[in-house]
Amino acid sequence: NPYQDLLTDTVGGSVLLLTLNRSDARNALRNNTLRELAAALAQAEQDSAVRVVVITGGPKVFAAGADIKEMAQLDAIGALTDPRPQYWKAIASFSKPLIAAVNGYALGGGCELMMHADIAIAGAGARFGQPEINLGTMPGAGGTQRLIRTVGKPLAMKMVLSGEMLDAAGALAAGLIAEVTADEQTIERALALATTIAAKSPLAVRMAKEALLKSFEMGLDAGLNLERKSFSLLAASADRQEGIAAFLDKRQPVFAGN
Ligand code: HXC
Predict the structure, then answer these.
(1) Which of 24, 68, 146 maximizes ligand 1 atoms within 8 Å of its Cβ, making it the mutation to test the pocket?
(2) For residue 198, what are the CA distances in angstroms to 41, 102, 112, 186, 190?
(3) What is the complex's ipTM, to 2 decimals?
(4) CA atoms 183, 192, 26, 146: torsion sign
(5) What 3-state DSSP class applies to 70?
(6) pLDDT at residue 103, as a whole number
């Protein structure tokens, strides 16, 4: 394992499981943690065997946010020139599916990390919050922008301005997470979902992810245009011929990735 703050496992040959491994600091995301996450994803991006990545934390804490002790050292210019935004950007630009398996607390940067994932699965005991306001500051890794786009204004305002946490049922109702499981089954369920997605055509998966995410940035007309072009381009892929042929032959498709 080349990492200090992360454990890596390959599951079933096509799913990479990344586990935050700094439980003594409640998986606080120090710069090194984000640097390692970005590096692990950059490697997964290059590795065609990796189809889906699952990120998880510990049983009681997914991640307790930015490392407050590290952040305390930063003045304004330090924060401006900090490498963190570049690591977050690298995580956000990962082109393969990223699934978060969340147990326990996902707070501040931990909740923001979860929102960088494409799908979040959480245990029934999970708690979500943006408590930065309690420290006299505010979210700095997408917690205002991604949260409001995901759960809408009333709840995003309540969470960011009050620091109050949401439980798993509330997060599910708000659309912040996709599923709630029993706490002991969160990782298993996330890996099963990852395995399902890993068996699909990686080209179709990548283009669908891109089109879905671009909806946050594009107007409807431009978004529909991107969707149509991606859909058309996929008609040139061998996997699309295979998928349609398999359906017509009443057999399971085998996607080669081209
Ligand atoms: C650095 C942290 C930390 C954090 C916990 N620790 N969270 N260190 N950064 N975000 C450290 C504690 O200082 C303590 O270290 C050890 O982890 C155990 O913490 P406890 O509080 O005793 O653990 P527990 O009772 O299990 O409670 C877990 C918790 C709580 C509910 C997650 O730790 C918590 O509320 N943490 C802070 C959450 C938060 O405010 N996050 C937002 C971060 S701000 P020692 O050395 O005493 O053992 C952010 C961006 C802005 O994300 C930052 C601007 C400054």
Answers:
(1) 68
(2) 16, 20, 24, 18, 12
(3) 0.96
(4) negative
(5) helix
(6) 98
